[in-house]
Protein 1
Amino acid sequence: MGETRTVKGCCPLDCQDTCSWVAEVDQGRVVAVRGAKDHPFTRGVLCAKVNDYPTRTYAPDRLLHPLRRVGPKGSGQFERISWDAALDLIAQRFTAIAAQHGPEALLPHRYLGSMGMVQCRGLMRLFHALGASRTGGGICAVSYVASAAEGLPLGFDPEDVADSRLILLWGVNILSTCHHHWQFIQEARRRHNARVICIDPIRTRTARQCDEHVALRPGTDTVLAAGMARVMLEEGLADLDYARTVCADLDDLARNVAPWTPVRVADICGIAPETVVRLAREFAAARPAVIRAGVGVQQTVHGESFVRAVHALAVLGGHWQHRGGGVLAIARPDLNQLRPERADLIPPGKSPRVLDMARLGETLTDPTLDPPIHGLMVWGTNPAVVQPDAGRVQQGLARGDLFTVVVEHFLTDTARFADVVLPSTTQLEHFDVLGAWGHHYISVNLPAIAPLGEAKSHGEIMRLLAPRLGLDHPAMRESDEEIAAFALPPGLDLAALKDAGWIKTTKPPVTLAGAGLRLAPRDGVSLPPAPPSAGMLRLMTPKAHFFLNSSFANQPRHRRAEGRPTLDMTAADAVARGLRDGEAVKVRNGRDAFGATLRITDAVVDGVVAMPGKWWSVPKEEGAVSNLLCPGAWSPGGQPAFNEIFVEVVRAEAGAAAAQVKRPALVSSGAS
Ligand SMILES: Nc1nc2c(c(=O)[nH]1)N[C@H]1C(S)=C(S)[C@@H](COP(=O)(O)OP(=O)(O)OC[C@H]3O[C@@H](n4cnc5c(=O)[nH]c(N)nc54)[C@H](O)[C@@H]3O)O[C@H]1N2
Ligand SMILES: Nc1nc2c(c(=O)[nH]1)N[C@H]1C(S)=C(S)[C@@H](COP(=O)(O)OP(=O)(O)OC[C@H]3O[C@@H](n4cnc5c(=O)[nH]c(N)nc54)[C@H](O)[C@@H]3O)O[C@H]1N2
Ligand code: SF4
Ligand SMILES: [Mo]
């Protein structure tokens, strides 16, 4: 054994916590990653997904050289090619497409598989300089972002939660999705005897650790909030003096919630009327209370209504006036994430169209789009699995006249549709800088080892592609460190960050006086949609404990830990369908179907089934792409309604156990 070297880094994943880690390198090989002990927020602990991150880097099925498609799109048949051949092919095709159809026929499609300034943002420079179509929107916390544009705050420093007296965990599964936040909740319990109440249709890991679990029906949150607001107003518990300084439509708000008596609310939410009254009184009395709100709960066509409803409660309670009070959904350090993309490189006088990234299926199949997309580059996301109406996405990706490049670590469902696959470095092999969306620290990631095989960082891919595309701006020659440094706030230089490993940026407390917020429901208090036909159940697809979205769903250890795709259902719903615990079922609707193993449990509510995790379509016996059943439906702000899928559940035919029963038509093979 040689001497072990340690290298400072951080987790790249799309998770609230952005943990700092230390990579241990022995003879050029990373033997472990361990949480950085002195990080004030993440405190030396990674999570059940990432504590063996080197197994991802060294996975036997990791992509380590470029590939070119040789079989039909989606078949996963590729041959190895050199980087030169791959880059020349991409440049030649993108140049020809731009010449024939205009540069807007090119589309970058990226998300937060890595949240790094280089890995997520760097490649955008190419597309901006070409004048390609831009992407807007998102597939995560879109309703929060849309509401922030109306002035609603997203949150405050989560370390201040330690000063809360009442914590409502409203549709958030902290112990699975961002467990470092839990320690501040425990601190509030210790310091202030704070009560912790979980509001979630599922009895999650988190719900089990709370003082109370309110298992309401999904999509009824705005009704519960209206009921609580009514009690607060009627019993004189609201801080009206404060609310008037913040809210421009208080009278409207009061009028809208007036009809929502506890009995009516209880009936719709599936909880007791006394619970509504007690929640309202406790919430009003706490000094302060926080509504710690999650992401899944706003993934409906009424996402912004939910965000407005919880803000209305926090304002009526006067909670923002105290440290640790208000609504907390997202917390970010002061990092200018968009700057490294260099939108200033867009050719002068041009303003390329912006396409909603959450409608990729429509974008790729809409016959009226002018020009249609002919060149697509995908990185940091797996749209064939994670997008709403994933069948339509797959039909788009299968188009014969679409040239698709996917930059990836693994041959995902999406990469299987690519014409060219480029191998990307993992976090142990490249430099990067990250923000976070659950705290106020900026973190650095130093490369622990050289890239494996022929994998390259996205900065390197940009530098290699740019001259082939005829782009010679100095920004195209910047190093990965220079790309990342572009995001740093004034006064913070990269050398200091590299030295420290992380830096907390300070943000002023949220003050809302005079904000003129509009918090009344629009078009009345929103109600959940009824099932399209009798007997259909609402399918929830919460985050899996051992996967990060669809990342890790292909890794053996994570798959073993997560088990098979499993559908939770109440005994009453199972009896009504003649289904038994542990049997293979088919989950279907008019769009598609997938297989799962049934688990009868009282951890969900009647009328609801839940399958945690975003599974791939392979291996076939255990494929379960739930978004094939997800409608193309969005909130007014563009939030995909992942949580409004309605399904039938039937016994799987013998032998068809967990097989995907229908695949979207692959409309193409051959040349593109
Ligand atoms: N282990 C793990 N961690 C993750 C991720 C992962 O995939 N796995 N993903 C990361 C990402 S991208 C994100 S966005 C975050 C998300 O973090 P969370 O918001 O905590 O996770 P979600 O599973 O989206 O939703 C949380 C809870 O909302 C509940 N919920 C759904 N619909 C409703 C509703 O109508 N009303 C109420 N009250 N509750 C509802 C679900 O039952 C679920 O328990 O987690 C991040 N961390
Ligand atoms: N039904 C349903 N659908 C959902 C959700 C849900 O709860 N239910 N959640 C939604 C939410 S909140 C989110 S955020 C999205 C998440 O959806 P995605 O952003 O697509 O997240 P992942 O599925 O983790 O896919 C990220 C991909 O990026 C790749 N990757 C990671 N690091 C790098 C890198 O450095 N370079 C490159 N080139 N690739 C990299 C990974 O291998 C992985 O394949 O899904 C949404 N879809
Ligand atoms: S996924 Fe989240 S909790 Fe896990 S190591 Fe990464 S940042 Fe930390
Ligand atoms: Mo997300």
Note: Residues 655-672 have pLDDT under 50 and may be disordered.
Protein 2
Amino acid sequence: MVRRRGLPLERGLFELYGDDPERADALIFGRRTGASRRGFLRGTGLATMSALVGASIPFADQMPAGLIPAAFAGSDEGFVIPGKEGLRVLNDRPLNAETPPHLLDDPITPAKRHFIRNNGLPPESFDPEGWTLTIHGEVERELKFTIDDLKKNFEVVTYALQLECGGNGRAFFDPPAKGNQWTYGAVGCARWTGVRLKDVLEAAGLKPTAVYTGHYGADRHLSGDPNKIPISRGVPIEKALNPYNLIAFEMNGEPIHPMNGAPLRLVIPGWPGSCSHKWLNRIWVRDRVHDGPKMTGTSYRVPRYPVAPGEKVPKEDFVIIHSMPVKSIITSPKTGIEHPLNKPLEVRGHAWAGDNFVTRMDISIDFGRTWIQAELDPPENPYAWQHWRATIRFPIHGYYEIWARATDDEGRMQPFAIAWNPKGYLNNSMHRIAVRVVA
Ligand SMILES: Nc1nc2c(c(=O)[nH]1)N[C@H]1C(S)=C(S)[C@@H](COP(=O)(O)O)O[C@H]1N2
Ligand SMILES: [Mo]
């Protein structure tokens, strides 16, 4: 999907250049580092570069080797993901891209603005014809469905469902945590259409030994080794039977975007996004906690007790993340704006709370000394994010920060500080934006 071809690399350009720019040049240009770095693009290097930027490069003979990464650095231009717009690409292999907060302003996230988090290489075909889903393991009968079978045999429903990557907000960890440096935008709420996971599991008949699901899809391991899979996670059966989990074939009334899991995916809202398997073709019902790749060790796990920033935690003290914590985002205005003193400012955004509801939203313009209660809408359905808005008047010109804080139905609030953990998960600290008020 991403317009790049012929790059014989297991890792992406971003990571490659971040680690060792000279070696990256050598790999891409097929030449040695040092004195020869003054070379210019030609031959296979030029062909690769053209494929990467999705166009021919008229002045290629003037393009020094070291210029390559600049074409992509943290921008939404240059790196073309068809059908997406305005996303910030964090990595190209695997492809990971987030949405800047002000582009998440729509009540329902359009497909072009929905983030992408891939652990491997997407499948080569997204064709719904001939796609099948197999349910096996601890079930009375193994079942295999085409997408048409699913539509014919089960009730088709549409829900707005929020998905957030477990590592959203990792960029603010100090000391830093390895992995994608998501800031705010590994979250979205699209309208998904599909059949209930519950109905399909019940049709297969869950045996009393069924305790967990294991999800499998058609994406490939980064190494290209067909015997390896990039990710296979699952959820406890009690969560799997939640009626808002979908086996989805449409996103906002259209076929799912290829990078968001076309033609068939799970949407298991409220839990880390990694539970919502894309390019889904098999569900293995397990008699034990699933142990696929990224399910074990410290993946998608946090220490079961609070730890100090930087603290080493023994592996056996990590627990699997279940519900995501209460969180909110300011989608308007965009951070950094100037605003006239004599005019009220409408601030708005969305809030969500894993398996819970958001019951209150507060805004501060004085670094948290006082709070203004925002107007908060109920969700369109459980697991949809909730919209909120507040009108603010500023007492005097100057520099302000607007802070947003959501509270869930169990009284839990977003903290100011990050509850640090080794792998950089679950950062639900408050979103803050800057506004300069001018007289
Ligand atoms: N098959 C497959 N499913 C997957 C992934 C993946 O790499 N492969 N990534 C997971 C992770 S970590 C997240 S956060 C969500 C992201 O969904 P999106 O890319 O549609 O936003 O997909 C999940 N499902
Ligand atoms: Mo994720």
Note: The first strand starts at residue 88 and ends at 92.
